[in-house]
Write a structure and sequence with these properties.
The chain is built from 19 helices and 16 strands. With 521 residues, the chain is α/β, with parallel strands linked by helices. Bound molecules: 3-methyl-2-oxobutanoic acid and zinc ion (ZN). Zinc ion binds next to loops.
Length: 521
């Protein structure tokens, strides 16, 4: 008989903690609502003791998400557990996830404790967490490098006091399929009360084996899989949940398991998370990459035309991928835009129709036709910018000569005033625009990363620019989207400047503007 595999999503905890720039509360809530729509059973949404921002987002998500179990992480420390419970107090029900390292390496060189002390700390903390909820999960951190005897000892003790989920993390992405199967099988054989808990695995992808290891764990009896959408996470990432979910569906004949995920939401969720986290999906990424369902070799194309099943094991519509549909133009009304968004599966609460329609008209004027992926990009890139923005682009012009100099002039609205500056450089037109912007704002920033990707297809694609800048030892993201890549580059920088502006002290900003003595036009 098939049995359910619980999908535990940690995009907003293990995934988010690996991003170079933290997400805002609004962005995290948007992701949490998408994950709820996708139907994840449990979502780990933060580590509330780690920062006031994390606490606030866990609190906000707990208030708004009703159909997935909310979970927060805590170390085996009273203050962590109490703070996690407090942050989730507005949820209908919640899970506390506590963790402690159990491998000899971690115990000796990190914690300086022996195994008896570890068992004592783990059980004391589990009892404290159980005072707040009957849904407590315990993770034996670095379990894949822990001896089987120690794992069995601690797991039995924790189940005895009422811990319902035992997680076996491969924290450093070290284990192999055989090893993880062996560990899970041994737990089932040697721990007498194992039937009173769910065994979970949490694999990292350092050797590219996270999904394979998770599937082996299911075959050995694990019934909860932890991971993130698109596999985002520390170092090489976590288990990509969409891959595990589809493996369970496509290979139900051999895995004898199912999930409660709404498969049609997979593609949309993956796209939104990629946009919000500023992490483009590689084209060859399984399930959600743009090439995942395209066939380029002639033999394959011929085979697919004769019968899709010859070379296609998944119908792309299963994950909610649709054929690209034309098309909206500047003559299309708000109702048509709303209709297309609904057709693509978005609820009205997912986006702001007024802002979307204004952006849509601007784009339709430039591009002529607007496609469904354009609408998505407008809804989830432009609308992420929290209003009101201090800096906005009024005008720019560039002149660039091959093997010569590039000159840019930029007019920037800063609050209520407009400033104009120009710059000339031998590094191309984008550098010239950035230098002109820098002359206006005078922020001492350095550009760490610049990435240009095409959103959409062929000549109708929009250019999306993602940048990362460093300012006062902090990293800030910027994203820009436009038909013209110079404009999207400028918009990305202005987005980053707005993020810096928000985080800066008002007086300091004024001081900088004054010191620079820039000419008001
Ligand atoms: O990788 C890990 O060990 C973790 C634990 C906190 C579960 O993320
Ligand atoms: Zn992890």
């Amino acid at each position: 008989m098939n049995s359910q595999v619980i999908i535990f999503d940690t995009t907003l905890r293990d995934g988010e903690q690996s991003l170079q720039v933290s997400l805002s509360v609004k962005q995290k809530l948007k992701i949490a609502l998408c994950l709820e729509n996708l139907g994840v059973d449990v979502m780990e949404v933060g580590f509330p003791i780690s920062s006031p921002g994390d606490f606030k987002s866990v609190q906000t998500i707990s208030k708004n998400v009703k159909n997935s179990r909310i979970c927060s992480l805590a170390r085996c420390l009273d203050k962590d557990i109490d703070t996690a419970a407090e942050a989730m107090s507005l949820a209908d029900s919640f899970r506390i996830h506590i963790f402690l390292a159990t491998s000899t390496l971690h115990m000796e060189s990190k914690l300086k404790k022996n195994f008896d002390e570890i068992i004592n700390m783990a059980t004391t903390s589990a009892k404290r967490a159980l005072r707040y909820t009957d849904d407590v999960e315990f993770s034996c951190e670095d379990a894949s490098r822990t001896t089987i005897d120690n794992l069995c000892r601690i797991v039995e003790k924790l189940i005895n006091i009422g811990v319902k989920t035992i997680n076996i993390p491969d924290t450093v992405g070290y284990t192999t399929s055989n090893e993880i199967s062996f560990t899970i099988e041994k737990l089932f054989q040697k721990v007498p009360n194992i039937d009173k808990s769910i065994i979970s695995v949490h694999c990292h992808n350092d050797l590219g084996m996270a999904v394979g290891n998770s599937i082996s764990a299911i075959q050995a009896g694990a019934r909860q899989i932890e991971g993130t959408i698109n596999g985002i996470g520390e170092r090489a990432g976590n288990t990509a949940l969409e891959e595990v979910i589809m493996a369970i569906k496509v290979r139900k004949d051999t895995l004898n398991a199912f999930t409660k995920i709404k498969h049609k939401e997979i593609y949309r969720t993956s796209q939104i998370i990629s946009q919000i986290c500023n992490l483009p999906i590689p084209p060859n990424k399984a399930i959600v990459g743009s090439n995942a369902f395209s066939h380029s070799s002639g033999i394959h194309q011929d085979g697919v035309l004769k019968n899709r099943k010859n070379y296609e094991i998944i119908d792309p519509r299963t994950i909610g991928m649709k054929e690209v549909k034309l098309n909206l133009t500047s003559r299309s009304g708000r109702a048509a835009v709303k209709h297309y968004m609904t057709e693509m599966g978005y609820k009205e609460s997912d986006y702001n129709i007024d802002e979307l329609y204004t952006d849509f008209l601007k784009l339709a004027d430039k591009k002529g036709q607007v496609f469904d992926y354009d609408l998505e990009a407008l809804a989830f890139i432009n609308q992420q910018q929290e209003q009101p923005e201090y800096f906005s682009l009024s005008f720019f012009s560039v002149q660039s000569i091959s093997n010569g100099l590039s000159t840019a002039s930029v007019k920037l609205l800063c609050g209520k005033s407009t400033y104009t500056e120009s710059a000339t450089t031998s590094n191309g037109p984008i550098d010239a625009v950035y230098q002109a912007l820098n002359r206006i704002t005078c922020y001492s920033i350095s550009l760490q990363k610049y990435q240009l990707i095409a959103k959409g297809r062929g000549k109708d694609a929009l250019g999306q620019v993602n940048i990362l800048v460093e300012y006062k030892n902090r990293k800030f993201h910027g994203v820009g989207l436009a038909t013209d890549i110079i404009e999207s580059s400028a918009q990305a920088m202005i987005n980053a400047l707005n993020n810096i502006w928000k985080s800066d002290q008002v007086n300091e900003k004024l001081k900088i503007l004054k010191k620079c003595n820039i000419s008001k036009k």
